[in-house]
Protein backbone atom coordinates (compact mmCIF):
# COMPACT_ATOMS: atom_id res chain seq x y z
CA UNK A 1 0.00 0.00 0.00
CA UNK A 2 1.13 3.56 -0.68
CA UNK A 3 2.75 4.85 2.54
CA UNK A 4 1.41 8.38 2.07
CA UNK A 5 -2.14 7.13 1.83
CA UNK A 6 -1.71 4.57 4.58
CA UNK A 7 -0.52 7.05 7.18
CA UNK A 8 -3.56 9.30 6.83
CA UNK A 9 -6.19 8.94 9.56
CA UNK A 10 -8.84 11.04 11.22
CA UNK A 11 -6.21 11.81 13.85
CA UNK A 12 -4.97 14.42 11.37
CA UNK A 13 -7.88 16.52 12.64
CA UNK A 14 -7.04 16.07 16.33
CA UNK A 15 -5.39 18.83 18.37
CA UNK A 16 -4.22 16.77 21.32
CA UNK A 17 -1.29 18.37 23.12
CA UNK A 18 -1.74 21.68 21.27
CA UNK A 19 -2.17 25.12 22.83
CA UNK A 20 -4.48 27.58 21.10
CA UNK A 21 -4.57 31.33 21.71
CA UNK A 22 -7.96 32.72 20.66
CA UNK A 23 -8.41 36.45 21.23
CA UNK A 24 -11.81 37.56 22.48
CA UNK A 25 -13.02 33.98 22.89
CA UNK A 26 -15.09 34.69 25.99
CA UNK A 27 -18.02 35.58 23.72
CA UNK A 28 -19.48 35.38 20.23
CA UNK A 29 -17.74 33.69 17.34
CA UNK A 30 -14.49 33.42 19.28
CA UNK A 31 -16.21 31.20 21.81
CA UNK A 32 -17.18 28.83 19.00
CA UNK A 33 -13.58 28.57 17.76
CA UNK A 34 -12.30 27.95 21.28
CA UNK A 35 -14.98 25.35 21.98
CA UNK A 36 -14.13 23.52 18.76
CA UNK A 37 -10.45 23.40 19.66
CA UNK A 38 -11.20 22.09 23.14
CA UNK A 39 -13.43 19.37 21.70
CA UNK A 40 -10.55 18.43 19.39
CA UNK A 41 -8.13 18.14 22.33
CA UNK A 42 -6.40 21.52 22.67
CA UNK A 43 -5.87 23.66 25.75
CA UNK A 44 -6.91 27.30 25.48
CA UNK A 45 -5.40 30.65 26.30
CA UNK A 46 -7.84 33.54 25.95
CA UNK A 47 -6.89 37.23 25.93
CA UNK A 48 -10.06 39.24 26.53
CA UNK A 49 -11.08 42.87 27.01
CA UNK A 50 -14.27 42.80 29.07
CA UNK A 51 -16.96 40.31 29.91
CA UNK A 52 -17.67 37.18 31.88
CA UNK A 53 -15.45 34.14 31.30
CA UNK A 54 -17.69 31.66 33.13
CA UNK A 55 -19.39 30.21 30.03
CA UNK A 56 -16.27 29.52 28.02
CA UNK A 57 -14.56 28.13 31.13
CA UNK A 58 -17.38 25.64 31.57
CA UNK A 59 -17.29 24.69 27.87
CA UNK A 60 -13.55 24.06 27.80
CA UNK A 61 -13.40 22.25 31.12
CA UNK A 62 -16.39 20.06 30.23
CA UNK A 63 -14.33 18.90 27.24
CA UNK A 64 -11.58 17.89 29.67
CA UNK A 65 -9.21 20.66 28.65
CA UNK A 66 -7.56 23.59 30.43
CA UNK A 67 -8.15 27.29 29.87
CA UNK A 68 -6.31 30.41 31.07
CA UNK A 69 -7.17 34.09 30.67
CA UNK A 70 -5.51 37.48 30.56
CA UNK A 71 -7.63 40.62 30.52
CA UNK A 72 -6.40 43.74 28.77
CA UNK A 73 -6.38 45.90 25.65
CA UNK A 74 -4.85 44.29 22.56
CA UNK A 75 -4.05 47.69 21.08
CA UNK A 76 -1.48 48.07 23.89
CA UNK A 77 1.86 46.64 22.75
CA UNK A 78 2.90 45.76 26.28
CA UNK A 79 -0.29 43.75 26.73
CA UNK A 80 0.44 41.78 23.56
CA UNK A 81 3.90 41.03 24.95
CA UNK A 82 2.30 39.78 28.17
CA UNK A 83 -0.13 37.58 26.24
CA UNK A 84 2.77 35.73 24.63
CA UNK A 85 4.94 35.54 27.74
CA UNK A 86 2.09 34.52 30.03
CA UNK A 87 0.89 31.82 27.65
CA UNK A 88 4.43 30.45 27.51
CA UNK A 89 4.67 30.57 31.30
CA UNK A 90 1.33 28.77 31.61
CA UNK A 91 1.66 26.12 28.90
CA UNK A 92 5.20 26.32 27.53
CA UNK A 93 4.15 26.72 23.89
CA UNK A 94 1.85 28.37 21.34
CA UNK A 95 0.68 26.13 18.50
CA UNK A 96 -2.37 28.00 17.21
CA UNK A 97 -3.29 31.67 17.12
CA UNK A 98 -6.74 32.89 16.11
CA UNK A 99 -6.88 36.65 15.62
CA UNK A 100 -10.57 36.92 16.42
CA UNK A 101 -10.96 40.04 18.56
CA UNK A 102 -12.46 43.00 16.75
CA UNK A 103 -15.01 45.78 16.72
CA UNK A 104 -17.29 47.65 14.37
CA UNK A 105 -18.95 51.00 14.74
CA UNK A 106 -21.53 52.18 12.26
CA UNK A 107 -21.70 55.79 11.15
CA UNK A 108 -22.27 58.04 8.18
CA UNK A 109 -19.27 58.36 5.86
CA UNK A 110 -19.38 62.17 5.80
CA UNK A 111 -19.20 62.53 9.57
CA UNK A 112 -17.36 59.36 10.66
CA UNK A 113 -14.99 60.37 13.45
CA UNK A 114 -11.29 60.05 12.71
CA UNK A 115 -10.59 58.52 16.12
CA UNK A 116 -13.26 55.84 15.61
CA UNK A 117 -11.79 54.95 12.24
CA UNK A 118 -8.28 54.65 13.67
CA UNK A 119 -9.45 52.57 16.65
CA UNK A 120 -11.27 50.09 14.42
CA UNK A 121 -8.35 49.73 12.00
CA UNK A 122 -5.97 49.25 14.92
CA UNK A 123 -7.98 46.45 16.54
CA UNK A 124 -9.40 44.76 13.44
CA UNK A 125 -6.24 44.79 11.30
CA UNK A 126 -3.07 46.03 12.96
CA UNK A 127 -3.40 43.89 16.09
CA UNK A 128 -3.62 40.78 13.88
CA UNK A 129 -0.26 41.73 12.37
CA UNK A 130 1.48 42.62 15.63
CA UNK A 131 0.20 39.68 17.66
CA UNK A 132 0.64 37.33 14.72
CA UNK A 133 4.27 38.33 14.36
CA UNK A 134 4.89 37.82 18.07
CA UNK A 135 3.30 34.38 18.00
CA UNK A 136 5.19 33.46 14.82
CA UNK A 137 8.53 34.06 16.55
CA UNK A 138 7.53 31.43 19.11
CA UNK A 139 6.23 29.04 16.46
CA UNK A 140 9.47 29.30 14.48
CA UNK A 141 11.43 28.08 17.50
CA UNK A 142 8.96 25.23 17.97
CA UNK A 143 9.21 24.13 14.36
CA UNK A 144 5.74 25.13 13.20
CA UNK A 145 2.31 26.48 13.99
CA UNK A 146 -1.00 27.76 12.68
CA UNK A 147 -2.26 31.34 12.39
CA UNK A 148 -5.92 31.88 11.59
CA UNK A 149 -7.03 35.42 10.85
CA UNK A 150 -10.71 36.31 10.92
CA UNK A 151 -12.04 38.19 7.93
CA UNK A 152 -15.65 38.68 6.91
CA UNK A 153 -18.02 38.65 3.98
CA UNK A 154 -16.94 42.31 3.90
CA UNK A 155 -13.44 41.15 3.00
CA UNK A 156 -14.83 40.81 -0.53
CA UNK A 157 -17.72 43.25 -0.65
CA UNK A 158 -18.56 46.64 0.83
CA UNK A 159 -21.50 48.03 2.72
CA UNK A 160 -22.46 51.51 3.77
CA UNK A 161 -21.92 53.05 7.22
CA UNK A 162 -18.97 50.86 8.30
CA UNK A 163 -15.93 52.24 6.44
CA UNK A 164 -13.11 51.12 8.79
CA UNK A 165 -14.49 47.61 9.36
CA UNK A 166 -14.77 46.98 5.61
CA UNK A 167 -11.29 48.42 5.02
CA UNK A 168 -9.77 46.33 7.82
CA UNK A 169 -11.40 43.10 6.69
CA UNK A 170 -10.13 43.60 3.15
CA UNK A 171 -6.70 44.11 4.72
CA UNK A 172 -6.95 40.81 6.60
CA UNK A 173 -6.81 38.94 3.28
CA UNK A 174 -3.59 40.71 2.29
CA UNK A 175 -2.11 40.23 5.74
CA UNK A 176 -2.86 36.51 5.63
CA UNK A 177 -0.97 36.23 2.35
CA UNK A 178 1.95 38.19 3.81
CA UNK A 179 2.14 35.77 6.74
CA UNK A 180 1.93 32.76 4.42
CA UNK A 181 4.72 34.10 2.24
CA UNK A 182 6.99 35.07 5.13
CA UNK A 183 6.40 32.08 7.39
CA UNK A 184 5.71 29.09 5.16
CA UNK A 185 9.39 28.13 5.12
CA UNK A 186 9.17 27.62 8.90
CA UNK A 187 6.23 25.18 8.71
CA UNK A 188 3.82 27.90 9.82
CA UNK A 189 0.57 28.04 7.89
CA UNK A 190 -1.53 31.21 7.87
CA UNK A 191 -5.09 31.17 6.57
CA UNK A 192 -8.29 33.14 7.07
CA UNK A 193 -11.86 32.34 7.97
CA UNK A 194 -14.41 34.75 6.54
CA UNK A 195 -17.79 34.35 8.26
CA UNK A 196 -20.87 35.69 6.59
CA UNK A 197 -24.10 36.60 8.34
CA UNK A 198 -24.54 34.49 11.45
CA UNK A 199 -27.56 34.55 13.72
CA UNK A 200 -26.04 35.68 17.02
CA UNK A 201 -27.16 37.76 19.96
CA UNK A 202 -25.07 40.67 18.68
CA UNK A 203 -27.20 41.10 15.57
CA UNK A 204 -30.59 40.18 16.99
CA UNK A 205 -31.97 43.67 16.41
CA UNK A 206 -30.87 43.62 12.77
CA UNK A 207 -32.53 40.24 12.25
CA UNK A 208 -35.74 41.56 13.76
CA UNK A 209 -35.94 44.13 10.94
CA UNK A 210 -37.85 42.18 8.24
CA UNK A 211 -36.55 44.29 5.35
CA UNK A 212 -32.90 43.82 6.33
CA UNK A 213 -33.30 40.17 7.30
CA UNK A 214 -35.02 39.28 4.03
CA UNK A 215 -32.53 41.27 1.95
CA UNK A 216 -29.63 39.26 3.40
CA UNK A 217 -31.40 35.91 3.46
CA UNK A 218 -32.51 36.22 -0.16
CA UNK A 219 -28.85 36.62 -1.18
CA UNK A 220 -27.68 33.47 0.66
CA UNK A 221 -27.98 30.37 -1.56
CA UNK A 222 -28.24 28.22 1.57
CA UNK A 223 -31.43 30.14 2.40
CA UNK A 224 -30.56 30.78 6.02
CA UNK A 225 -28.21 32.70 8.28
CA UNK A 226 -25.31 30.75 9.72
CA UNK A 227 -24.99 29.13 13.14
CA UNK A 228 -21.96 28.99 15.42
CA UNK A 229 -21.47 25.30 14.71
CA UNK A 230 -21.16 26.13 11.01
CA UNK A 231 -17.78 27.71 11.87
CA UNK A 232 -16.30 25.06 14.08
CA UNK A 233 -15.26 22.34 11.63
CA UNK A 234 -13.38 24.76 9.40
CA UNK A 235 -11.56 26.20 12.41
CA UNK A 236 -10.40 22.75 13.51
CA UNK A 237 -9.31 21.92 9.96
CA UNK A 238 -7.16 25.05 9.67
CA UNK A 239 -5.67 24.47 13.13
CA UNK A 240 -4.82 20.82 12.51
CA UNK A 241 -2.33 18.68 10.63
CA UNK A 242 -5.01 18.11 8.00
CA UNK A 243 -4.33 21.59 6.60
CA UNK A 244 -0.52 21.44 6.57
CA UNK A 245 -0.38 22.17 2.83
CA UNK A 246 -3.02 24.92 2.90
CA UNK A 247 -1.34 28.31 3.21
CA UNK A 248 -2.44 31.85 2.43
CA UNK A 249 -6.06 31.08 1.62
CA UNK A 250 -9.51 31.87 2.92
CA UNK A 251 -12.53 29.76 3.75
CA UNK A 252 -15.76 31.69 3.27
CA UNK A 253 -18.31 30.43 5.78
CA UNK A 254 -21.21 32.41 4.40
CA UNK A 255 -23.64 29.94 2.84
CA UNK A 256 -22.63 31.28 -0.57
CA UNK A 257 -23.36 34.96 0.17
CA UNK A 258 -20.25 36.26 -1.60
CA UNK A 259 -20.97 34.20 -4.73
CA UNK A 260 -24.15 36.10 -5.54
CA UNK A 261 -25.10 39.58 -6.70
TrEMBL record:
Which family does the record assign?
Belongs to the short-chain dehydrogenases/reductases (SDR) family.
- Keywords of the record: Oxidoreductase
Matching entries from InterPro entries are given as:
NAD(P)-bd_dom_sf, Sc_DH/Rdtase_CS, SDR_fam
- Transmembrane portions of the chain: none
Mention one GO molecular function: 2-deoxy-D-gluconate 3-dehydrogenase activity
Protein's recorded name: 2-deoxy-D-gluconate 3-dehydrogenase
User: EC annotation?
Assistant: 1.1.1.125
Q: Which Pfam families match?
A: adh_short_C2
Q: Which PROSITE patterns match?
A: ADH_SHORT
- In terms of superkingdom, the source organism counts as Bacteria
Q: Which organism is it from?
A: Brooklawnia cerclae
